[in-house]
Amino acid sequence: MSPLAQRIVRRFAMFVVALLFVATLWELYKVVGPEDGGALFGINILPRSNDRAMPHVWDMLSRYTRPELRSSERKIWRVVLAGAWFSFRLSLVGFAIGTTVGVLLATLMARFKVVERGLLPYLVVSQTVPLIALAPLVVSWGGKLEIFGYEWPRWLSASVLGAFLAFFPVAVGTLRGLTSANPASLELMDSYAATWTQTLLRLRFPAAVPFMVPAFKLAASASVIGVVVAEISTGLKGGIGRLIIEYAREATGDPAKVFTAVFGAALLGLAMAGLVAAFDLYVMRNRPKEAT
Amino acid sequence: MSTVSVNNLNKIFNKGQANQVDALVDVSLSIEQGEFVSLIGPSGCGKSTLLRLIANLLEPTSGDVVVAGKSAKQARLDQDYGMAFQQAGLFDWRTVAKNIELPLELKGWDKAKREARAKEMLDLVKLPEFAAHFPWQLSGGMQQRVAIARALAAHPPLLLMDEPFGALDEMTREHMQAELLSICAKTGTTVVFVTHSIPEAVYLSNRVVVMSPRPGRITKIVDVNLDGQRNESTRERPEFFAAITSVREALRAGGGHAHTGAGVEDR
Questions:
Q1: Alpha helices in A33-75 (DSSP H)
Q2: Integer Cα distance of B119 and A38 in angstroms
Q3: What is the predicted pLDDT for the residue at A105?
Q4: Is-contact B230 B178, C-beta < 8 A?
Q5: Mean local confidence (pLDDT), B140-164
Q6: Digit-coded pLDDT (tens) for A49-88
Q7: Which among A113, A93, A214 is positioned nearest to A159, based on CA atoms?
Q8: Which CATH number fits domain B1-24+39-80+158-165+173-241: 3.20.20.370, 3.40.50.1000, 3.90.1300.10, 3.40.50.300?
Q9: Mind listing the pLDDT tens digit for each residue in A200-225?
Q10: CA A228 to CA B123: how far, in whole Å?
């Protein structure tokens, strides 16, 4: 087996072990934890361990094989999977917009010091705006705004909110990477009378890759969070966020149901992280392997 | 016609400020085609500054630099020189061959011509089987050879080197010195070589330019009379030791230090 395949198998095995570990802890707490919660040092801190607050792992899993509603034929796993797929596509669009904007901003900031000094503080401030406050505003563009003759679709608002969270780590990481090129290499490019663009493409960007990959990982999860929060706060239909609020309303009668959607959201995050990990393996395949 | 001509060159950093540094004062030097000239001196004597002024990576405060019959700037734009540094500075993400092709790419050469030239250069530095390797798979000495191949890829008439063997161990270093001389003999390249090491300067050069600090200036130019092909026995000849002694004395006379100028190695 190749070292790469070995690494993937080992990672996957670790992942399964970690899942089993969490499931065991969950069931263990149900055995020892107080039924109606408990106070520690006077603060209500211990969660309730009854079946309504913490359904058994097997109840959650078996819930997937039963229909979504009593009246419908569709099994819930199909509904959750379809919702996750819908949100996945929105996250992917958000991720694409966010990384594009982030890389462009970083390039501008690396090119013009004035832009960096003027823009960077605003980028930092932008991330302190709560997403929940922004969501209704952006969603209100849906159906009202037209760009080049195309009507702004409602789902795009969710992607834009994902992009709003995703662009920041990419801009900061890429800027750091673009300015990380070794001074001797920059001098070498100067000695070849290379233009700024030539230096950017042949030296600065390749040198920035090790900084951009972790930024992309953050951006991938940020775009998922942005999309799911946008779906939840605006009730956009079709996605996993909407399923979570719908199922949460039924928590008293059908406590396992909301967890099926929560795991769907986790699956969505894993899929995005997996995509970036594959990208990482591809672009770093010829770089020196760091001692691990 | 001389390949490099430096006339009454002055370089002052932070002029008029409290931390003004007179890096070079009234430096004149002429280097003939095919000559190998070393610049030696203690830290702060301006040897690297002089090299960067010839390379047009710095602008002089006054005076002028002529390279290959043109202004230093035009020579840089025309890639009339190649440069090698203490760190090989190869790009990790490019194969050895692609690293050598870099200056040719920037010049706009087409692919077939670039690949042919990269192959020729790899033969020259005796690494023909490493074209598809990545730099981090090579030893330090091999990386430095690739850096030399890259510097010479466009067949420039002039090679500027800033302590290129400073980071190598003694054995590799002596081997690389011999390699460099044989490459220069084959290509007829003029070399300006900055070093800290007296034996290295003497072994390689036709002339050793001795510099001293505060202000940075040329104190003496030592002619090395080791005619013909250098080889391992050269290092044991009386002329070799005589030249080493005169360089050391010149360093002592100019440095203002009690003994050999700080930062100059005897090895």
A1: 57-63
A2: 76
A3: 94
A4: yes
A5: 89
A6: 888 888 888 888 888 888 877 777 788 888 899 999 999 9
A7: A93
A8: 3.40.50.300
A9: 999 999 999 999 999 999 999 999 99
A10: 59
Bridge partners of residue B83, in order along the sequence: B160
Helix axes A113-126, A154-178, angle to 10 degrees: 130
Report pLDDT digits (tens) over B4-23. 888 888 888 888 788 888 88
Q: Specify the length of chain B in residues.
A: 267
Please state, in angstroms and rounded to a whole number, the distance separating the CA atoms of residues A291 and B97. Answer: 26
Distances from the Cα of B143 to the Cαs of A54, B46, B150, B189, B259, in angstroms?
61, 27, 10, 20, 35
In words, the CATH class of domain A72-283 is: mainly alpha
Contact B92 A288 (CB under 8 A): yes
Yes or no, beta carbons of A206 and B93 under 8 Å apart: yes
Amino acid at B38: S
Contact by Cβ (8 Å): B245, B75: no
Contacts of B153 in chain A (CB under 8 A): none
Select from B105, B106, B158 the residue whose CB has the most chain A CBs within 10 Å, as the one to mutate to test that interface. B106
Token pair listed for B85: 């540094």
Name the token pair of A26.
Answer: 């969950």
> Model-level pTM?
0.82
What is the per-residue pLDDT for B264? 62
CA-based nearest residue in chain B for residue A202: B102
Is residue A143 very low, low, confident or very high in pLDDT (cuts 50, 70, 90)?
A: low
| A191 Cα to chain B: minimum distance (Å) | 6
- The whole-number average pLDDT for the span B211-236 is 80
**DSSP letter at B93?**
T
